[in-house]
Design a protein that fits this description.
Strand order of the largest sheet: 16-15-14-11-10-9-24-25-26
Distance between the termini: 50 Å
Largest sheet: 9 strands, mixed
Number of helices: 30
Oligomer: single chain
Structural class: alpha/beta
Length: 920
């Protein structure tokens, strides 16, 4: 294999270890590590080490002994090559660690600067469509959201951090490409920061390529209507408008890679332009030059995503080698395409880059396998003699060569194919190898393995090949509206066909295998995939295949030794306008709370909850029904039938809901235990304690509305608490405040009652709970207006972030009993403790036209006092922003919350009933 491939493999492995093992997403109360002055030295040291290692590899290749010398000492080039490869890995490890440390320091510095009331420059990339809309329309959210990059110059060093942007209130929004100083508050996450903008200064500049991408997105919305989210993903790599059900459908069908701009898209664009120039009878050099320029401009407009850069580099290398008549090895082109994007070392932990490189490696491996199937006269006689020798020397040799004869027959059968049959066989083999190589990444990220992926990709490839040029022609013709509409209408049928292919592939019985791989399993599967690729390019395939077999055996047996995640997880499943929460214990067992809504012909239990639980694996030990309204109990019957929970809890407030009747019928048929619960009931499982706080039978008997009889559950693990309110409203909250002391209601996470309605989450109740994070399960664009603006302002005034299913999709909160971590919208961050939270302040006011009024003298004095308080606490909190309503500046909540200390779980009352689940 080429020398450059070995060098790139060692470099990338070191980068991956350095970037992935460095802690990320830490709390912003940590002081920034002083890595900025040290980073240039680390970079130069890493580059020097890499250069020396590459030189050693070259020397080892030059002094390599012939293959006859098989002893290690007889071939010192192997030792030199091993030392060089290790040196490259160490250089990559140093470079990746330094880059990860610098990125973390930049995030912490930007969050701290915003918390001190300083401005940071935001480069806005564009607004994000609303997630979770059932129709797939690209309607914008009422409160704008978007993506961008936050920049800050500190001590002559410039930080540029990717950010998910949200505005504190509805109003004017920046346009794509705008550069403007902003004030707000932010949170350090694994990928960057989450920024909530309070006020914006006047636009100071404009990023041309970002603005062009935003203009292209607006053109797509105008031309394609309901199909715009899919077109955005195919053309400008904007997946924010893709709804969760569409993404799951493409993932189940094995077509999720189509939703990102990768090598296939870039190759189609270049090939289309080459075809056009050839039809115009232009010289080939002109066509190659124009295609390369178009690809470079296209990649720049997209923001240079790693998959597109990889494809562009490989295309450029191959085209230039063809024009210069200097043949280049295909693995060398892949090595260059994989290595050049690592100018940004953290790209190695990006899923798009990983899928792009592994997918291209799988395609090259498939080509190598197909080349080996070609007949070679030099080996025909040797194979015949060895077969005859095996027959004469006994059964052992005959059995050994039987597999070879079977492989020869398969190879000859493939080679006898002609025309369409030959193409189908070749593409199926390629698809099988590509699926096997990318399975570890797909399983780790999406929690499933698609068995139909080779066949769906075979059907989707010609559709995308026709669709991509049609979409670009529609965009190029956008100045002429009738012509653009013509091309857009021509692309309508292929878009529909692509979506139907994904739907059909996702509905194939047993076509998708839900998996929940552990880290050890994923690593073993990745090693097996690398070994399989190596076997296709190596002369001796035996060692590679043995390595792959051993890694696969470890991957199969590792889950049997896994005791569970080892942490408590609370999952808010995205079921639209309804509720479905799942508590996963440290040993991997589940407690389900509600099951989402139902509709004509389906329900969220079958469509969302059951696949979600099966994707992770584990038994359902308990199911709790908060109350018998259709948006909570509609999917319960499907969950009971599919997952068979051992125990059922509810308040027994009977309603006429059809979903409630189906759930009770399913319980009776399945033989599950039924319990009516009230205050004092406690249940313990794998170190997790569930306490029922409300309602009691006297309260329930006096109610007319089922919302006021919601089962309120407190989940405790270590020093962390989660308070789950169902649809409890103000009257039940007041009943809890009267009956229980504030310490019993205090919780780190509050799941808001009634989807954030203004009839719930009163000021007194929120003050008593004093949450760090709020959860809102709500459907996108719902007709009820949930969550209420009053509730949003109430939590914003306290500096408590709200994680909403309509914005984030599924949300996961993890805790080991001490630290609390949030996972939402593909990002991860650590939630700070109460001691680091302070109410936000207002430094300015934003007018409807987007102009900003600077802070008054009084506001500046308050800001100085606020900064002094932060220094006294020893850190800058991520959610302690700079905005506070004038009426809440002296409410006293700051001192009371900062004085809170960690609390042990409350003891169970003497009259309580305790259920203990038996240990395994």
């Amino acid at each position: 294999m080429p020398l450059l491939l070995h060098a790139t493999a060692g470099w990338i492995l070191g980068l991956f270890l350095g970037a992935s093992l460095t802690p990320r997403g830490q709390s912003a109360t940590l002081a920034p590590a002083p890595w900025w002055p040290a980073l240039p030295a680390a970079m130069w040291l890493a580059v020097w080490m890499a250069a020396v290692a590459v030189a050693l590899l070259g020397i080892a290749r030059l002094v390599r002994r012939p293959p006859t010398a098989r002893r290690w000492r007889a071939d010192p080039s192997r030792a030199v090559g091993a030392v060089a490869w290790i040196g490259l890995g160490l250089a990559g490890l140093l470079f990746g660690t330094a880059a990860a440390q610098q990125a973390q320091s930049c995030r912490v510095a930007i969050v701290a600067a915003l918390a001190r009331g300083e401005a940071a420059t935001l480069r806005f990339d564009g607004a994000m469509p609303t997630r979770g809309a059932a129709s797939g329309r690209s309607a914008r959210a009422p409160v704008p959201r978007g993506r961008g990059e936050v920049r800050l110059v500190r001590d002559a060093h410039r930080c540029a951090v990717p950010a998910t942007v949200r505005w504190a209130r509805a109003g004017a929004v920046l346009q794509a490409g705008d550069l403007a100083p902003v004030f707000g508050r932010a949170t350090v996450t694994e990928r960057g920061i989450r920024l909530e903008v309070d006020s914006v200064h006047t636009v100071t500049g404009r990023a041309t390529w970002r603005a062009l991408r935003g203009h292209t997105g607006a053109t797509i919305d105008r031309l394609f209507g309901d199909q715009a989210p899919l077109v955005r993903a195919l053309v400008i790599a904007d997946q924010d408008g893709i709804t969760p059900d569409i993404r799951d459908r493409f993932a189940d069908a094995g077509l999720v890679h189509v939703l990102s701009v990768s090598g296939m898209h870039v190759a189609i664009i270049a090939s289309a332009l080459l075809t056009l120039t050839a039809a115009l009878r232009l010289p080939s050099a002109v066509g190659v030059t124009l295609s390369l320029l178009l690809v470079l401009a296209y990649v720049a407009m997209l923001g240079a995503p790693a998959p597109a850069v990889r494809s562009a580099v490989m295309l450029m290398v191959v085209r230039l080698a063809t024009v210069g008549q200097r043949p280049v090895h295909e693995w060398t082109a892949l090595a260059l395409g994989a290595a050049i994007p690592t100018v940004d070392p953290l790209v190695v932990v990006d899923l798009g880059w990983q899928l792009s490189v592994s997918g291209m490696a799988a395609l090259l491996a498939a080509r190598a396998v197909l080349r080996r199937m070609r007949p070679d006269d030099r080996f025909t006689r040797a194979e015949h003699l060895s077969t005859q020798d095996g027959k004469q020397n006994g059964t052992r040799h005959g059995a050994r060569h039987g597999a070879r004869r079977l492989a020869d027959r398969a190879r000859h059968w493939v080679l006898r194919r002609r025309g369409l049959s030959r193409w189908l066989v070749r593409e199926t083999i390629t698809g099988l190898i590509a699926t096997a190589v990318t399975v570890p990444l797909i399983a780790w990220t999406f929690g499933r393995v698609s068995l139909v992926a080779p066949f769906t990709n075979l059907a989707a490839a010609p559709v995308v090949a026709f669709l991509q040029p049609a979409l670009f022609l529609a965009l190029l013709a956008s100045p002429c509206e009738p012509l653009a509409r013509l091309f857009a209408d021509a692309a309508w049928l292929p878009l529909l066909l692509l979506d139907r292919l994904a739907a059909v592939g996702a509905q194939v019985p047993h076509g998708v295998v839900p998996v929940a791989p552990t880290r050890v399993t994923a690593i073993c599967a990745g090693v097996a995939a690398v070994a399989m690729v190596g076997a296709t390019a190596a002369r001796r395939v035996g060692p590679w295949l043995r390595t792959a077999a051993l890694a696969l055996a470890l991957a199969v047996w590792a889950p049997l030794l896994d005791p569970g995640p080892g942490v408590l997880e609370v999952h808010m499943i995205d079921v639209g306008q309804g509720d479905a929460l799942a508590v996963r214990t440290p040993r991997g067992r589940w407690v389900l709370i509600d099951a989402g809504p139902s509709w004509e012909g389906g329900d969220a239990g079958r469509r969302a909850v059951v696949p979600y639980i099966q994707r992770y694996g584990g038994a359902v030990a308990l199911m709790v029904l908060s109350h018998a309204h259709e948006d909570h109990v509609g999917g319960a019957a499907s969950v009971i039938s599919a997952l068979a929970p051992r125990l059922w809890w509810e308040s027994a407030f009977v309603t006429a809901s059809r979903g409630y009747h189906r759930a009770l019928t399913a319980l009776r048929d399945g033989g599950q235990a039924w319990r009516r619960v009230g205050p004092g009931h406690r249940w313990q499982l794998d170190g997790v304690t569930l306490d029922v706080l409300a309602p009691d039978s006297v309260w329930s008997a006096a109610q007319q509305d089922a919302n006021e009889t919601s089962v309120v559950v407190r989940v405790s693990y270590g020093r962390r608490r989660f308070l789950l309110m169902g649809d409890a409203e103000a009257r039940e909250e007041a009943w809890l405040l009267e009956r229980l002391p504030a310490e019993e209601l205090r919780a780190d996470v509050l799941k808001l009652g009634h989807h954030g309605s203004r009839t719930s989450s009163t000021e007194e109740f929120v003050r008593a709970v004093s949450p760090l994070v709020g959860l809102v399960s709500v459907g996108a664009g719902n007709r009820y207006g949930h969550p209420s603006p009053e509730i949003l302002d109430r939590f914003a005034a306290r500096g408590v972030p709200l994680l909403r299913s309509d914005h984030e999709g599924a949300v996961v909160l993890r805790t080991d009993g001490q630290q609390l971590e949030a996972i939402a919208h593909g990002d991860r961050w650590r939630v700070p403790d109460r001691a680091s939270l302070l109410p936000p302040l207002t430094l300015g006011r934003q007018f409807p036209n987007g102009a900003n009024v600077r802070a008054s003298r009084t506001g500046r004095r308050v800001a100085r006092a606020h900064r002094f308080a932060h220094r006294s606490l020893g850190g800058a909190p991520p959610w302690s922003g700079i905005r506070q309503r004038r009426s809440s500046r002296s409410n006293g909540s700051s001192s009371s919350r900062s004085a809170c200390s960690p609390r042990p779980p409350a003891n169970c009352p003497a009259s309580s009933t305790i259920w203990r689940w038996p240990a395994r």
